């Protein structure tokens, strides 16, 4: 890939990783409810899962979508239902004093990694990246290097949302602010599906 395309890809990775979406809203909520340390495995899982998905799709799985276009709406529906379920869990989380054990079980490295496969925004970002930046790549090492580059750029962007959540927690411990925040985050996570569904 030409140097100019690398810079364009870095910009693409930065913009798609830093902007609000299901991943970042989930990370923000986790940072608020469980702190930075417990949210880091989720952040790593999201970045790792997306990179693995990138490699698999770039190596030819995208041909499945071309041959069987019905797969895309099925993924959208399944992913959207799971995001609505996560939105419900977040909205039901109470104050910071509560254990929130139901939600805690939903977070972590493996959940973050697997979640990418049913996250509609992840698929949209991925298909844009694969079709724009890896269309003429034949060597697997090139594809792996691009996926690694996305992870290197994406990790600090997603981590920033966890840090923001961790800092917000200090403000939200007063009164019922945490409950209001969790309900707002649940609603925002659900609303984040609107532009995805409209595509």
TrEMBL record:
It comes from the Bacteria. It is found in: Cell membrane. GO terms for cellular component: plasma membrane. The keyword Membrane applies. GO terms for molecular function: amino acid transmembrane transporter activity. It is a multi-pass membrane protein. Keywords: Cell membrane, Membrane, Transmembrane, Transmembrane helix. GO terms for biological process: cysteine export across plasma membrane. The chain crosses the membrane at residues 6-28, 40-60, 66-91, 112-134, 140-164, 180-198. The keyword Cell membrane applies. This is LysE family translocator. The lineage of its organism: Bacteria, Pseudomonadati, Pseudomonadota, Gammaproteobacteria, Moraxellales.
